[in-house]
């Protein structure tokens, strides 16, 4: 049975705990042995070999969908389902309208370090083929609380961590979206430049990473409260993610196009499976 239909069935019945167990029931169970969870890299097929494409939206309240429950995931799900009927949004969190696959890893109010601390478990639990990573807004908004000076280094470590744990997964990394406050937006712009440099360097190392410039996608008029997008802004984000995903699939899976070298090798020494 289609993964989304299984999730939807249990959700409509109000059985949240069973809905979260739907993926293992459908045949994607993963060993929870501590040795496996702590020491092994994920062994899974690439996006080109996936029967059902698992996509993990990963980030903060914008991924969660503040101001519009479901956020960009509403339109993204609709567009993906039209072209890729066997797609599964994955993650431990669930919200949004019942018409979409509501799973995600959007954690409101959280900064880069929180994502670093939780990402290993989330990856092992959901085994995504594609990760949509957009984080850093809270580091920008609260620079003293989250040590903004170290934000780029933490994000670099996070990208390295994801690609070390899941070397066959594709990681699409977005820049920090536009903010209304000019000072905060200036920090967002600088961090976004760092994000692009991080992605370029990781790609040159053979990592499966690509960049989406969300900072350029949104304008101040696309914000509902100065930070979070309104419905139109979320739709713009969805279109940007959709373009990045479909472009990636065409480049990786079209044999006429040269692909990134295989990552079935040990990760670089600076990348850690653990932090």
Automatic annotation (TrEMBL):
Domain SGNH hydrolase-type esterase: 58-234
Signal peptide: 1-21
UniProt-listed Gene3D superfamilies: SGNH hydrolase
CDD domains listed in its UniProt record: XynB_like (cd01833)
UniProt KW Signal keyword: yes
Keywords tagged on the record: Hydrolase, Signal
A molecular function GO annotation: phosphatidylcholine lysophospholipase activity
Protein name according to UniProt: SGNH hydrolase
């Amino acid at each position: 049975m289609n993964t989304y239909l299984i999730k939807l069935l249990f959700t409509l019945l109000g059985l949240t705990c069973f809905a979260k167990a739907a993926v293992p029931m459908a045949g994607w169970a993963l060993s929870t042995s501590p040795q496996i969870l702590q020491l092994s890299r994920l062994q899974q097929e690439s996006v080109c070999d996936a029967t059902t494409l698992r996509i993990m939206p990963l980030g903060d309240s914008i991924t969660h969908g503040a101001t519009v429950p479901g956020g960009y995931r509403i339109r993204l799900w609709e567009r993906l389902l039209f072209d890729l009927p066997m797609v599964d949004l994955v993650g431990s969190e669930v919200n949004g309208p019942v018409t979409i696959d509501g799973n995600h890893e959007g954690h409101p109010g959280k900064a880069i370090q929180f994502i670093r601390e939780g990402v290993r478990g989330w990856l092992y639990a959901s085994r995504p083929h594609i990760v949509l990573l957009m984080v850093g807004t809270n580091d920008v908004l609260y620079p003293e609380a989250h040590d903004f000076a170290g934000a780029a280094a933490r994000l670099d470590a996070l990208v390295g961590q994801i690609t070390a744990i899941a070397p066959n997964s594709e990681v699409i990394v977005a820049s920090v979206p536009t903010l209304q406050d000019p000072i905060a937006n200036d920090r967002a712009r600088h961090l976004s430049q760092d994000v692009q440099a991080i992605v370029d360097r990781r790609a040159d190392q053979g990592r499966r990473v690509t960049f989406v410039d969300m900072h350029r996608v949104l304008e101040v008029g696309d914000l509902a409260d100065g930070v979070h997008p309104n419905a139109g802004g979320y739709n713009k984000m969805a279109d940007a993610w959709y373009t990045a995903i479909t472009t990636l699939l065409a480049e990786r899976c079209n044999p006429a196009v040269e692909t990134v070298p295989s990552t079935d090798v040990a990760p670089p020494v600076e990348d850690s499976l653990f932090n």
